[in-house]
Design goal:
The protein is mainly alpha-helical. The protein is about 65% helix and about 0% strand. It has one domain: Amino acid/polyamine transporter I, CATH 1.20.1740.10. This is Amino acid permease/ SLC12A domain-containing protein.
Length: about 475
């Protein structure tokens, strides 16, 4: 069945099937895959790539998590960690692109895992993949909004009181109220260009003013300084959470399959192109900041070091107020994190409306009152779950010898095997890696990484619900 559909998709996306347009053939293909076309196909490859790039808001994601590579390896971890992870994600994007050229639906990895898996366990494969995708997006969206709240607290505190005290104490109730405001704003506004123009302006100012001078190139690209307590090699890897978090929206591009004219060819190309855009944007953000870092020991004592870096460089509290807007990154997840039309798991907690999803985020945010460390685990869990969800159809495709992807219009041949192996290996590394505490020894409960506890908890809920209900009633997506 999979092979037949793959052949059909390859022929139909050629654009000359009975003289019909790309949009017509794409709609026919979608119908053959079990879905009714409902969206207008108006986007080009570049539009999809640019929109995905903007929604991912990589500069913002890197700014709010700079603490991790700063404490785990310094400049080398910040710059080369970002480059390394970006190249790995290119392999993930290329691997998913191959599969998407065969199954170009907005159901993405959930639908692909179901179609590629053997009949005997395809329902379980789709169930697990769907759970990973939903949980990953819930936790990532939550962490984005809370990171924004913490970042705003740090930005406000560049304006210190007369006695040198912070303007905001950053108590639990203050952070939660700011988080509440951020969550509401993310559902109401969309300030993409304001965010990016502001970021570029600040980074140029940082390099030009550089009140304490600039570090030399050998420091920026070659200085390695471990302050995490881990051995140097492992410490470098632990710091990669920074880059992995910023690239966690990679698979969201698949949700645009029904908005482009020839999704079997356009979406795979757009996925790879987006990662290259992200790589460049990340370097443009990180390199200026590393050039003006002047006191790593002080910066790692802060949860959000970027406002302090900018203030030190420009010598002005007002100039250090970062204008990043969370809606750019969070809204991508809010829009694509759950397509109930596709992920029909019939789980009790799956919301059907945007406002319901917002209520879930706010409810989960209450965890911060109990333990900030437990909440911080959500960023790690989000990365682990999404990375695993992205690799699920890739792994299943490898098990079948990549037979189905050979029928697609984005088949990469032997290079595809390489990309698949890198993608799955990255997932196997991510699961234990981001379950580790950032620093050791762990002498305080606030330093504990609760990511494995949260991840195992969601896994048990998923398996329990499958055994209790899904095994008899869940039938998977339409085919």
């Amino acid at each position: 069945m999979s092979t037949k559909m793959g052949v059909k998709s390859d022929a139909m996306v050629s654009g000359d099937h009975f003289g019909e347009t790309d949009s017509d053939t794409a709609d026919q293909l979608l119908t053959s895959l079990g879905y009714k076309p409902e969206l207008l196909r108006t986007r080009s490859t570049f539009q999809v790539a640019f929109m995905s790039f903007v929604l991912a808001s990589v500069p913002y994601g890197l700014a709010t998590t700079l603490y991790y590579p700063l404490v785990c390896g310094g400049p080398v971890d910040i710059i080369w960690g970002w480059v390394a992870v970006s190249l790995i994600i290119v392999c993930v994007a290329a691997s998913l692109g191959e599969i998407t050229s065969v199954y170009p639906t907005a159901g993405g990895v959930y639908y692909q895992a179901f179609m590629l898996a053997p009949m005997s366990y395809r329902r379980l494969a789709a169930w697990v993949c769907g759970w990973l995708y939903v949980v990953g997006n819930i936790t990532i969206t939550l962490s984005v909004n809370f990171a924004t709240a913490l970042f705003l607290v740090a930005s406000v505190n560049v304006f210190q009181a007369a006695a040198g005290e912070d303007v905001l104490a950053g108590s639990a109730y203050q952070v939660f109220l700011i988080f509440l405001g951020v969550t509401l704003i993310c559902n109401l506004t969309f300030a993409i260009f304001w965010t990016f123009v502001g970021i570029i302006a600040i980074l140029i100012t940082v390099l030009v003013v550089a009140r304490h001078g600039r570090n030399n190139a050998s420091y920026v690209f070659g200085h390695f300084e471990v302050n995490s307590g881990w051995r140097p090699g492992w410490s470098f890897f632990v710091g990669l959470l920074h880059a992995a978090y910023a690239t966690s929206s990679t698979g969201m591009i698949l949700s645009m399959c029904e908005e482009v004219r020839a999704p079997a060819t356009q979406v795979p190309k757009a996925m790879v192109l987006t990662i290259l855009f992200n790589l460049a944007a990340g370097l443009v953000t990180l390199i200026p900041l590393v050039f003006v870092i002047d006191d790593i020991q002080y910066l790692i004592s802060l949860a959000q070091p970027v406002p302090a870096i900018i203030k030190s460089a420009v010598g002005s509290s007002g100039g250090a107020f970062w204008p990043a807007h969370p809606s750019t990154r969070a809204r991508s997840h809010l829009r694509y994190w759950l397509h109930h039309r596709y992920i029909t798991l019939h789980l009790w907690f799956l919301p059907r409306r945007r406002h319901s999803r917002m209520v879930i985020q706010i409810a989960l945010g209450l965890i911060y009152f109990g333990s900030s460390a437990a909440f911080n685990a959500f960023s790690g869990v989000g990365v682990i779950a999404l990375t695993a969800a992205y690799s699920a159809p890739i792994f299943v495709s490898m098990l079948e010898g990549r037979k189905t992807v050979t029928t697609g219009s984005f088949y990469l041949g032997k290079l595809g095997w390489f990309c698949n192996i890198v993608s799955v290996s990255w997932t196997l590394l991510v699961i234990p890696l981001f379950s580790m505490p950032t620093t050791v020894p762990v002498v305080d409960p606030s330093l504990v990484n609760y990511a494995p506890v949260v991840f195992v908890g969601f896994t048990l809920i998923s398996l329990g619900w499958y055994l209790a209900w899904g095994r008899k009633h869940y039938i998977g997506p339409p085919t």
